[in-house]
Amino acid sequence: MIHRKETVALANMNVVSSKDVTQAEQDKILRAAELELDTSKLEAGKTEGKTEASTASDEWTLTEFATTPKVSTYLVAWANGPFVSIESSYTSPLTGKVIPMKVYTTPEYIHQAQYALDVKVKVLPEYERVFDVAYPLPKLDTLVASDFDAGAMENWGLITGRTSVYLYDPEKSGLQGQKRTAGVQSHEVAHQWFGNIATLNWWDNLWLNEAFATLMGEVVILDRCFPEWESASEFINMHLDRALDLDGKRSSHPIEVPLQGENVEDAINQVFDAISYSKGASVLRMLSNMIGEDVFLKGVSIYLKKHLYSNAVTKDLWDGISESSGKDIASIMANWILKQGFPVLSVTEEGDSLKIKQNRFLSTGDPSADEDQTLWYVPLMLKKVGADGKVTTDRELYLKSEREVTVPLQDAQNANYKLNAETVGVYRVAYSPERLAKLGAEAAKRDGAFSLEDRVGLVGDAFTLAKAGYGKTSGGLSLAKALREDPSYLVNAAVSGHLASLASVWWEQDQAVRDAIDRFRVDIFGPTAKRLGFEFGKDDSPDLKQLRAVAISVAASAGDEWTLSEVKKRFGALMANGDDSQIHPDLLRTVFAQAVKHGGEKEYETVLGVYRKPETPSHKIAAMFALCFTQDEALLKRTIEFPFSGEVKEQDFMYFFSALSANPKGRRAMWESTKAKYDELSRRFAGNFSLSRLIESSFNALSTNEDADDVERFFKGKDVSKFSMGLSQGLDAVRANARWVQRDAEDVKAWLRDNQYLA
Ligand SMILES: [Zn+2]
């Protein structure tokens, strides 16, 4: 690479030589390489069309890098800029070699880069131990980029990513920021094996990269390095629910999806979604639970070793795991990988047995006979509680790609049992209303038979099934009420998410009903918010910190008086004299958003000031969200225009689109603005990962069939190939919302009345 002398040149491999070159030498090199260089485009300091004052010299350096091993072209990377770095190293537990590792940023960010480096040093040896394959390159750098379309990218030896995922300030970023940095860093390091050492044959096998990086990076290895975060349990909230949410839509796709033919690049861009990442990771987690994690990881290691520096397809992975487990993994997993969707199990209690039947789940609850043909291989994981209170799980029961199975269970109607123990399966379970109430009662017991994972799974099942018409929303609400004393962050996070979704979809129902939903949310979360308060103790566990943040967030957004008065007081200090010391980093989003929501221009300007000069990326994200929560028409208009003002990087449009859609006051305006700005959006984001998500989030919170018709009308005749998946998934979401309201509006009203939230 020929670059200005004062800049830093980076590539996948280490530098082997670096020397100053004169203009004449440069010309010679370029001619030799048959490159025609237009030097007028190389004027100092010219970026993004803006000319900045520059002190760039006219001295040039030629840097040569070592040759990479055999590598897929999408992993080739080089970078050049005014970077500074911090350095560490690790000693390979397999080879004893010392591998240097750096994190590069532009100078203003380097003081927040230490943590990303520490995480890399901590996780890398773990991967080597687990896979028994050494990291093969002579170095592993991370470059933090100030504008980046995706979250991060795993280029071999030179990981790149955006500031919000890599920068962390121990005083100012908070636990959410810390977990994000660790999770993303670990995910990208996992790719150094999954994707880089053994790579996919073609993009239809993308899941082999992303599902593994998700499962290994964000669960298995993260849990070993940071057990206090309970990442393995959080997987259910973070990935399993997300996977099932998307895969319940008609517009979903199989994990392994054919990608050929016309517009193939557009199609490839769109499969970097919850199916490839989260559903892929979920089915691997299920398989790992079926055969045992040691056997699973052994099989993965066999697979990796057989495909070092070469391409692989799904079957190769199954061959490796079949070898370690002695089971025919390909036939067990076939439908999970090759078919769209997942099953819902319905349970009937008959005498001394349970009859369990599988059908395709759809978020609209209406699969046709044709759509309901797939029969999956399902581990039933029957958890039983004996009369003596002893808990056992039968791990050998399966629905072996058959429609129905009957399993023995003594006095089934009065037995204490639950399917999908530890929520390891990729399916939902529909129980009768009576059984759901019994499960809720058991789940609510302190030290009851149901684990944290069981309780989180129950909440997800109850609400998702209600939303799709397999159950009633009142059943979910009763379960939420039964679990109100649950001490864990994850159960509370699941409940809060589903109640927020109810409040959001019910946005155009009677004010009295909406107020009643908020009263219920305040009733559940208000006391916890007040008990835990806004101050964080230095010995608080991660679980307690996150519980506090979620309780305060729900209580404030549902209008709890005490919580809102605290918000006002604490934001007041920031507004008056720039003192943000009363706002803990993990409460930034809530405090900013509620201050703007309940405030006026002064609050808005204060948050805008934070956006323009953020202390950390977390501050900036919190500010972006908050600007979207104003209730004032004029300010709302400003926010809607803001992304197009030149003050917002393209990587950040997403925050505005999703937050404006989340604000009922901004929801329709967001969609109208998207229609008005469509030409600009499709031009500016052509080829970006984010276009599909931007389009989808601009309308997917709407909840009537008329809205869905309007969206369809608008895109009719337009070329939607770059975001066809996002468009149809968004439309499915709107129609599912509409059906949910139509089906359960009366049910919800009756429940609120019966429980004294509605007069
Ligand atoms: Zn990835």
Detailed description of the structure:
- With 759 residues, the chain is α+β, with helices and mostly antiparallel strands.
- It is built from 28 helices and 23 strands.
- The radius of gyration is 27 Å and the shape is globular.
- The model is unreliable at 44-53 (pLDDT under 50).
- The site of zinc ion (ZN) has 5 residues, from α4 and α5.
Protein topology:
Layout (H helix, E strand, L loop, with lengths): L1 E3 L3 E4 L3 E7 L1 H10 L13 E2 L2 E2 L8 E6 L12 E4 L2 E8 L6 E8 L8 H18 L8 E6 L6 E2 L4 E5 H4 L7 H18 L6 E3 L5 H20 L5 H17 L16 H7 L4 H17 L1 H14 L3 E3 L1 H12 L3 H10 L4 E8 L2 E8 L16 E3 L2 E4 L5 E4 L3 E3 L3 E5 L7 E3 L9 E3 L2 H12 L7 H17 L4 H10 L6 H17 L5 H22 L9 H16 L3 H17 L10 H11 L2 H12 L4 H11 L5 H9 L11 H10 L1 H13 L1 H7 L5 H8 L7 H11 L8 H31 L5
Helix pairs in contact: 2-4, 2-5, 4-5, 5-8, 6-8, 6-13, 8-9, 9-10, 12-13, 12-14, 13-14, 13-15, 14-28, 15-16, 15-17, 16-17, 17-19, 18-19, 19-21, 20-21, 21-23, 22-24, 23-24, 23-26, 26-28, 27-28
The chain binds zinc ion.
InterPro entries: Aminopeptidase_N-like_N_sf, ERAP1-like_C_dom, M1_APN-typ, Peptidase_M1, Peptidase_M1_aminopeptidases, Peptidase_M1_dom, Peptidase_M4/M1_CTD_sf
Organism: Pseudozyma flocculosa PF-1
Family: Belongs to the peptidase M1 family.
